[in-house]
Every structure is written in structure tokens, then in C-alpha cells.
Amino acid sequence: MTNEEDRNPQFYICNCFTTDNIFLEDYKLHVRFLSEQQFRLDYEALLGRLGCVTEQQFEDVLNKDSYLAPKFRQIVEYCRSRDTSEEGLLDLLEEEAAVRVYRFPVFEKNFCEELVEELEHFEQSSAPKGRPNTMNHYGILLNELGFDEGFITPLRERYLHPLTSLLYPDCGGRCLDSHKAFVVKYDMDEDLDLSYHFDNAEVTLNVSLGKDFTEGNLYFGDMKQVPLSETECSEVEHKVTEGLLHRGQHMHGALPISSGQRWNLIIWMRASQERNKLCPMCNKRPTLVEGEGFADGFTKHSDAPLNASCVLT
What we know:
Elements: H1 4-7, E1 22-24, E2 29-31, H2 36-49, H3 55-62, H4 70-80, H5 86-92, E3 94-95, E4 102-105, H6 109-124, E5 139-141, H7 147-167, E6 178-187, E7 194-197, E8 203-210, E9 213-215, E10 218-223, E11 234-236, E12 242-247, E13 250-254, E14 257-270, H8 272-275, H9 308-312
Antiparallel strand pairs: 1-2, 3-4, 4-12, 5-6, 6-14, 7-13, 8-12, 8-14, 9-14, 10-11, 10-13
């Protein structure tokens, strides 16, 4: 007799999703992109015959992701290469004082400014809004703005997945299949800081979007299994346009700002293959209740053994 797991198998994506069959709408062409050198060699002549005749037009094709920082694009390009390794990637990243916390530029400054402006318009509107979580009183769920499909999902799948696969294979970094994305706001008349906590995520990206503020650095302790009395915290500077990538179960908090206003983009990335066996919030096998969209990232299948190294390191 077929059991429920047989009827509902675990689904995966092929690694080629981030490099192959990328559609160029202006030229009605599917392409493969591993590096600029490879792309020029394979497609420059063909694109020329399709009307991409000037260097500026070709640069426009290359810069569809121009909202991303050049350094971030370089890091992702390396992760997609054939000779990639964790050691090579670490040479491109700046590892912080906290273990396995990495900082790198994610967005261009003008993109951060435009995004914050759009978020402020939404915040001031009469549209219904949900709180990001029980700790942050001020912020916006990005799915309420329709940002998942066109912005956050491609960012997770095409750009962050190559990094997390190398940096966090022991914590579901190779099989992230959903997320919860939101922005939080800190203001002198609202939330100033954020208490010590862990995230409902396997891997988290926290990007500082602006605006003008002073202080408010993040601090990291140990994994959630380690008592606070046995933990020594490390303070980590958080600069506008830059992201901090870390394990979701890594305890952390935000120190108070002393002036100005600060917006942060948070992406909780989740791997159903990990959390289906153990809910990171209650440390028990999850009791499932239907939710909307990605919900909390659980699915009704997978009996794969829990990767114990994820919760112990």
C-alpha cells in the first residue's frame, strides 16, 4: 500500500536553475550565463544579429541585475563557476568576529534609497498591514506588496542559493526552498533595538537599507543550544547596502540606535528537508496547520534523517 510520503515526494531544483535557460525578453532568447567572458563568447554575435548592435545595448543585457552591488555579482559569479570551493569563496568574503557570519555588499545605494521610499509610501497608506513578527512592532511584510515572485524569490534562488550551498551545507543551505521576507524599522520614537533571539529560519540574510542613523550594530552569541551564561557576544558593524549572512539558529540581537531612522531587509530562508523533522521554534516534530503562501516552510513529506551537525555547531 502506498504511504503518504510515496504520494507526496520531496521535490528539488537542478543546480542549472541559476545559470541556464535565462530568458532575455527583449531578444526572445534563452541563454546560459556562467561569466561575462563565457556570455560574450557564446552570445555576442547572435545577439548582434537580433538587434543588440551597440556596446551599450550589450551592457544593458548584462546589467539586468544592476540593482545588485558589483562585488555581490562577482561573488555569485564565482559560486557558479566550475572550480568553485568554500575556501575560494571565503577569500572573497569578510568573515566577522562571530563564527560563520559573513558581510558583503548586496544592493546599490540608489536602489536602497528607492526601496525605502517605496516602503514609506506603503507604510503611510491606508492599506491593511501585518506585523513582521512578535518582536518587531514596526515593519512591513514584503509579500503584502507583491515582492515575493518578482524580487525575493529570484534573489534567493538565483543569487543567494549559490552562496548558501557552499557556506551552510550542514544547515540546509543546499536545499532552501522557501522564505519569509520583511523589513523592520527602528526610530527614536518607535523601536530602538531588538532583544537577543534566534530566527525561524535555516539561513538568514539581514541587509541594512538606510536611512541615516548612528550606532545600532548587531551582536552575535552562540547557537541557541548554548546557555547565555556560557556565551560571549561579538559586536558586528552593519553598514548601509551591506548584508550579514548567518545561520538562523545563531543567537543575535540589535543594539539601540542613538539617532536617526534605520530600515533593514530580513530574509528568513528555509529548507523543508531540515525543518520537516524538527521545528526550530519548539524543537519537536512539527504539527502542521495549513498556511498561506510559503507559510513557515514545512511540507507534508520527507523522512530524511535530521542533519545533526546543523543544530550542534
